[in-house]
Amino acid sequence: MIDGFLALYIFMLAAFTGYEIIARVPVILHTPLMSGSNFVHGIVLVGAMIALGRADTPFEIAIGFIGVLLGAGNAAGGYVVTERMLEMFKSSKPGAGKEAK
Amino acid sequence: MNWLPDFIGHGAIKACYFIAALLFILGLKRMSSPRTARGGIVWAGYGMLLAVLATFFLPDMHNRGLIVAAVLIGVSAAWWTGRRVAMTAMPQMVALYNGMGGGAAAAIGAVELIGYARGLGMLHAVPDTSPLRPEAWAVNALPPALSPVELTLGVLGALIGAVSFSGSLVAFAKLQGWMDRRFVFAGQRAVNMLLLAAAVVAGFMLVLGQASLPLILVFFALALLFGLMMTLPIGGADMPVVISLYNAFTGLAVSFEGFVLGNEAMIIAGMVVGAAGTLLTQLMAKAMNRSIGNVLFGSFGAAGGEAQ
Q: Per the database record, which ranges form the NAD(P) transhydrogenase alpha subunit C-terminal domain (chain A) (predicted)?
């Protein structure tokens, strides 16, 4: 487990990182960036997998299963929606028909 | 040298989480500039893939079949809806997926809290657990005991996650047009504050060692109800700001639950989103010439006219 104060440092540095990343973002990118950060917290899927992996009683397993379902929805849905939004920012190079796979 | 494969395996999984966290930050950085924005989501996507794959190799995991099934169902359902939905419906889809993330964070908190309460019950059931007899503890320590800090952050993350879950679902329903009337009554703010206070009190009781299944259920019911009631009076025009706020909430909840699980990738990714989302919410509110407080609480009285 992580020591409390070490975690506090990680919290602080990560918060500054998040703040600095967004600090000079143009207005047209507000919504895609919201969607992109929505995808990034889809990492909750990993936590839900660990929680379900630790669950023992049927009740805990049921809640953990729902958690993994929701987390997977967050990650996959967040990715698809963000990718579709950002497709509109395709650089104006020729050959715009190529589809990202 | 029996420990060596485990040691290397453990290090490899931690390294995967580290690379994932790095890719998330670099991806978000690229997403904040129009020129590189498209590549950014791909970088973050590889980070997610790596973290999820690494998690399958964690030792001491039960229910692997269930995990695979839930991941496959969740991913394919969300992928399918996300692909099919019309471009104009994107904001409510973000709200929906964000609510799912909040719900997942709350579910993690619930599993950990219920396991913790079960551990307390087992300790009470067996009075002969003298600290001098470690083997007695070993039997009872089956569900991992939580330290006070872990317990506090776990409860806090569950509260924020549950609020984000029910609030985001209301935001989704409103933007989808399923709920086109604002729900306003006299004294609403007082009722909402009472709900929040009750949820916080229940959370405190959990932290102070009163953890039991009924209390945990009451705690989650109050948190979910508060998220619902807080979002109902907000008009559709303000929804993007509210969704962004709940996005930041979910990030925070994920970060706190990451601490409980000892997962660094969750702590970092969650907190980065929590901070970025908070700033983004302020920027969006400013672009609409409103303050966040105005959006959340100005729904009746002075600001009643502007949000249809």
A: 8-90
Mean model confidence pLDDT for chain B: 87
Structural tokens at position B240: 């993007």
In a domain, A1, yes or no: no
Residue A13 placed within a domain? no
Report the number of distinct structural domains present in chain A.
Answer: 1
pLDDT band at residue A77 using 50, 70 and 90 as cut-offs: very high
**Tens digit of each residue's pLDDT (9 = 90 or more) over B83-121:** 999 988 999 999 999 999 999 999 999 999 999 998 887
B243 touches chain A (CB under 8 A): yes
Residues in A closer than 8 angstroms to B40, CB to CB, are 36, 86
pLDDT given for residue B161 in this prediction:
97
Q: What is the model's pTM?
A: 0.88
Measure in Å the smallest separation between the Cα of B94 and chain A Cα atoms.
6
* A9 reaches B (C-beta below 8 A): no
Residue A5, domain member (yes or no): no
- Which residue from A14, A44, A69 is facing B70, i.e. has the nearest CB? A69
- Mean pLDDT confidence for A54-67: 94
Question: Chain B: nearest CA to A74, how far in angstroms?
Answer: 5
**A80 is in which domain, residue-wise?**
27-88
Is residue A53 included in any domain, yes or no? yes
Whether the predicted interface score ipTM is above 0.90: no
For chain A, say whether B89 makes contact (Cβ under 8 Å).
no
